[in-house]
Amino acid sequence: MIDDGAFSTFDNQFYPTPPSLARRAISKFKETRISRLLEPEAGRGDLLDVLMDSQSRHHPPVVECVELDLANQAILRSKGYRVVGTDFLRYRGASVYSHILMNPPFREGVKHVLHAWELLFTGEIVAILNAQALLNPNSAERRQLVTLINDHGSVEFLHEAFMTADTKRTTRVEIALVHLTKASTEYTNFIDGLRRDVEQRHTPAPETFAEVIIPRNFIENLVLSFECAVEASKQACVAQARANHYARRFAKSISTEDEAPTVELFVADSFNKAYDDLKERAWSTVLRSAAVLEKLSSQAQKRVEASFKELCALEFTYENIWGFLDGLISQQGQIQLDMVCDVFDMITKYHSENRAYYQGWRSNDKHRLNAFRIKSTRFVLPAHRRDWYCSFANSLTWDDLQRFRDFDKVFAILDGKHNATTKGIEWVFAQQWDALKSGERVSADYFDVRFYRKAGTFHLFPRRKDLIERMNRLVGEARQWLPHDRNAVPDAFWTQYEKAEKVTAKIRNLDQLAWEATRRFSDEETARAQQRLFDAYQAAAQDLGVHYDASMLLAHEEALQNRFPRLPSRAA
């Protein structure tokens, strides 16, 4: 099997298209202005790389790809190509392409070209095929392709095109370089419509409205609405082209400098813009639906939205939507852990008073000084707005509201519940606002909340110390401050970990030491600042009778190798 790309995990008979053959294929295009091109079997982009080298860098064409191999998809995206699908024979994208350039698998080459012909609105196709598919038309599909070539194109047979000096993997197979030009049936219908307009100009067609039955679920309804919107947009573009046709019969406007585009170009360009906008809005609807958002914190949403452009390139189909949602489900554990870490960071980054320091189990400078946990007694968060003393400041800012929603979601996750079934911090501010403004301490399921209006700070008093400990353990293990196996470290480690709040309370000048240890100085200054914090921690710990030094862990680690084979060894 020959295809554009390198060896694939799906088939070991892929042959990269040599640049000389790629240039010859591209030269078959009669219309050199490429507005939007599809490469249905893109591989690693060998054909496309040659194509893009021949195009203007000031007005590059939009290039979309279909590729089955996930590894190749990543390579295509890294080169800046848009991946819109996986299996071309199932691809039903509604983009209006001006050109299709393809090197399909030889075994299914005829099917791929026939599907490309059906997909094309108006424009050109160039395909690299096995010559035997045309020289031996022993099937209905092959005969159909031969007829298409006779009626709408041409073919050139090439010997040893995969034996040139620039071929990465050679083969003596004879190929057929097929060129097809398609005049849109929509354009024919458009001309017929002009005639009908003239004949029936006094008898406009009546408008009818059909009732649409709502499908059984939200996703099916979205896909149906999208397909209706795509068809309506296409009809609107054709209607506008018809209007432009009549407008050209009148004198050119004084303010008009450029000639109106041809019917084909106008329909293609205007519909492609409308189609891209519809896809973006449709995927946005999925991304912002309650089914997705109710499970994600604000930071987790941003991480998902970071891949939004790649998502929008895909067809908006039932299968792709569920594939995206299944992907979220498969990553649910990591997403939830990231959410826990986000809330942990929100709590610890504002005040060093919210942190209780301890030595991490990895005895290097970075981890032994950066290891800390949330205090289980109280922590303080600054409000985003600073005008709480004003009479009109009677509600949370959007940022504060989002922050506390994230708290509610994460602590419900830690408790094994859905946040909709709990009484969270957001409920406190919605239902007990007057009590909070007056300085009262109000209870929710996981926290008591007190609001100091003049200071502009929120004080949270945990009611479930077990959930605070669960958060500390999850974050500590995720960041390698804590071992996953409690028995992997000596008891002295856990003693200093459990007494972290008492030890931290005795550290003098904690704010200044913590600030210096985390600020970005030179490497030498940062190391000295971290050492000062470590020395202060050791002194405070010894005052409380806590004797632990992470350097003792190395010998203990080596002694445990036989009991815990998976335990990583720094000695290695």
Kindly summarize this structure in a few lines.
The chain has 572 residues and is α/β, with parallel strands linked by helices. The protein is built from 24 helices and 13 strands. Strand 2 (62-66), helix 3 and strand 3 (82-85) form a beta-alpha-beta unit.
β content, as a range? 5-15%
Low-confidence stretches: 1-10, 201-216, 388-393, 554-572
**Apparent shape:** elongated
What is the first-to-last residue Cα distance? 46 Å
Largest sheet: 7 strands, mixed
What is the number of helical segments per DSSP (H or I, 4+ residues)? Answer: 24
Q: How would you classify the helix and strand content by structural class?
A: alpha/beta
| Widest sheet: strand ordering | 3-2-1-4-5-7-6
- Counting DSSP E segments of at least 2 residues, the number of strands comes to 13
As a percent range, the share of helical residues equals: 40-55%
Give the mean pLDDT: 79
Radius of gyration (CA) equals: 33 Å
